[in-house]
Each structure stands twice: as structure tokens, then as C-alpha cells.
DNA sequence: GCGACAG
DNA sequence: ATCTTGTCGC
């Protein structure tokens, strides 16, 4: 499975929404993900402001030490437009291409985006989880949908994210007095474990180490390609 | 109809 | 997401 194949979804936005409604039924929320996974991966994508050349990276860390144990990347061209709610149709293909080059299979994957905190309960993290058949967690920097109170200012404090009176995630403070993260389960996990895992992977920065490192790698790849 | 709107 | 320099606060 390479990028060309993955990219050939050939869907228009309307068909993408229909596909999401189908796939959303396959998303499984488990009472808990492995209490202490051996490895945790982070994924991210970057590209030029008005460009279609995408770079994806996946970094695998040892959960206990947060040391990098494996990583891979891929690039490709995307034509699907950015539409709130349809992000996965832009980022998933190149992300899966990067995953395919990984030698390791992580126990859980942290994603830069929403999980079930999505209008149709299938954000990028959930969609990726279905493809990989792995537990995934959505760690978004901002809100797509849902309502919530402001969480306390201390690290670890959180406020439930509600969508149609349902708790779909947590607005989690990963650093004292710093803008909180929108954490939601992607697939094969649940709100509580997604929140615990995200906090356990967060150290000195707002973003958890796995996605933060993936973001870093993805940026240097793009800048390297830009200067050549 | 109007406003919101991951990356 | 990305464009961009300095600057305010812990």
C-alpha cells in the first residue's frame, strides 16, 4: 500500500460525509486502554500555506522514558480541500504512507486533531484508528465542536467536553496557566484513558511529547525540501 | 438564515 | 496548517 493508492479515494466532500457516517459505526470505545503501554506513537502533518505538498511523520517513543525508539516519514500531494469536519481526507493518506514505513507497531497513537469530538464522531484520530486497528487518542489544540467550562489553571485539571449532552472528551490543562488541549478518544480507548495517557506523555511543553516530536520532524522535512 | 469551524 | 519579530511572563 503506497501513497498513490491511498490517495486515490477520489471522493467529493458529500461522499466523504457519507463515508464518515458509515465508518463512525465501527469506532469502538473501550473502558480502558492498556494501563501502561510499552510504546506510544505520535503523528503529524505539515505543508506550505497554499501548497499541496504534504509531509507526514510518525515517531514512536518508549512510554516509560519517552525516548524515541522508531520513526518514519512520507510525503505526497493532496487535492482535497480543508473543510472543518473533513480533515482526515486531507491528512490520512500521507499519514498512512508514513506509518507503512514504520518497523515497529506502537501500542497506542496520539494524533494532532480530534477523535470522537467531531460532528459525526469520527475525527482524524478515530479515522486513523480504524485504518490501523490500533488505539488512538485525539489531542487537538483547539475546539471543533462541543461545549465546555473553562478548566482550572493547574496542570491536570480538566473540564468535560459535551456534544449533545454526551461527554466526548476533556478540555485538559497540560501546563499550568497555558491554553488547554482538547483530548478525545479516537478508537479502542475511552475518555478517561485518553486523558490519562495524554497527561502521562506531557512534560515541559503544552503538547504531549509524541505529537510534539512528530511535528518537529515534519517541519524540518518540509523546510529541507523547500531549500532544495 | 446566522454563526462556528480540528489542521 | 502557515505567514513572521519581538516581546511579556513564569
Automatic annotation (TrEMBL):
<protein>
    <recommendedName>
        <fullName>Endonuclease V</fullName>
        <ecNumber>3.1.21.7</ecNumber>
    </recommendedName>
</protein>
<dbReference type="GO" id="GO:0016891">
    <property type="term" value="F:RNA endonuclease activity producing 5'-phosphomonoesters, hydrolytic mechanism"/>
</dbReference>
<keyword id="KW-0540">Nuclease</keyword>
<keyword id="KW-0963">Cytoplasm</keyword>
<dbReference type="GO" id="GO:0003727">
    <property type="term" value="F:single-stranded RNA binding"/>
</dbReference>
<keyword id="KW-0234">DNA repair</keyword>
<dbReference type="GO" id="GO:0006281">
    <property type="term" value="P:DNA repair"/>
</dbReference>
<feature type="binding site">
    <location>
        <position position="44"/>
    </location>
    <ligand>
        <name>Mg(2+)</name>
    </ligand>
</feature>
<dbReference type="GO" id="GO:0043737">
    <property type="term" value="F:deoxyribonuclease V activity"/>
</dbReference>
<dbReference type="GO" id="GO:0000287">
    <property type="term" value="F:magnesium ion binding"/>
</dbReference>
<keyword id="KW-0255">Endonuclease</keyword>
<feature type="site" description="Interaction with target DNA">
    <location>
        <position position="82"/>
    </location>
</feature>
<dbReference type="InterPro" id="IPR007581">
    <property type="entry name" value="Endonuclease-V"/>
</dbReference>
<comment type="function">
    <text>DNA repair enzyme involved in the repair of deaminated bases. Selectively cleaves double-stranded DNA at the second phosphodiester bond 3' to a deoxyinosine leaving behind the intact lesion on the nicked DNA.</text>
</comment>
<keyword id="KW-0378">Hydrolase</keyword>
<keyword id="KW-0460">Magnesium</keyword>
<comment type="similarity">
    <text>Belongs to the endonuclease V family.</text>
</comment>
<dbReference type="GO" id="GO:0005737">
    <property type="term" value="C:cytoplasm"/>
</dbReference>
<dbReference type="Pfam" id="PF04493">
    <property type="entry name" value="Endonuclease_5"/>
</dbReference>
<keyword id="KW-0227">DNA damage</keyword>
<feature type="binding site">
    <location>
        <position position="112"/>
    </location>
    <ligand>
        <name>Mg(2+)</name>
    </ligand>
</feature>
<keyword id="KW-0479">Metal-binding</keyword>
Amino acid at each position: 500500500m503506497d501513497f498513490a493508492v491511498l490517495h486515490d479515494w477520489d471522493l467529493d466532500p458529500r461522499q466523504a460525509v457519507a463515508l464518515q457516517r458509515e465508518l463512525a459505526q465501527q469506532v469502538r470505545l473501550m473502558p480502558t486502554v492498556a494501563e501502561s503501554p510499552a510504546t506510544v506513537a505520535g503523528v503529524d502533518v505539515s505543508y506550505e500555506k497554499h501548497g499541496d505538498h504534504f509531509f507526514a511523520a510518525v515517531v514512536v517513543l518508549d512510554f516509560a522514558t519517552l525516548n524515541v525508539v522508531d520513526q518514519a516519514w512520507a510525503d505526497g500531494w493532496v487535492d482535497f480541500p480543508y473543510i472543518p469536519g473533513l480533515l482526515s481526507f486531507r491528512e490520512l493518506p500521507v499519514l498512512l504512507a508514513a506509518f507503512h514505513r514504520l518497523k515497529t507497531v506502537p501500542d497506542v497513537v496520539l494524533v494532532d486533531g480530534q477523535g470522537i469530538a467531531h460532528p459525526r464522531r469520527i475525527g482524524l484520530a478515530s479515522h486513523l484508528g480504524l485504518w490501523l486497528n490500533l488505539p488512538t487518542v485525539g489531542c487537538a489544540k483547539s475546539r471543533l465542536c462541543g461545549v465546555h467550562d473553562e478548566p482550572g489553571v493547574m496542570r491536570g485539571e480538566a473540564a468535560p467536553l459535551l456534544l449533545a449532552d454526551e461527554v466526548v472528551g476533556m478540555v485538559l490543562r497540560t501546563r499550568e496557566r497555558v491554553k488547554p488541549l482538547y483530548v478525545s478518544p479516537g478508537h479502542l480507548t475511552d475518555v478517561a484513558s485518553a486523558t490519562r495517557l495524554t497527561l502521562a506523555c506531557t512534560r515541559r511543553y503544552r503538547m504531549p511529547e509524541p505529537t510534539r516530536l512528530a511535528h518537529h520532524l515534519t517541519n524540518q522535512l518540509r523546510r529541507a525540501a523547500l531549500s532544495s
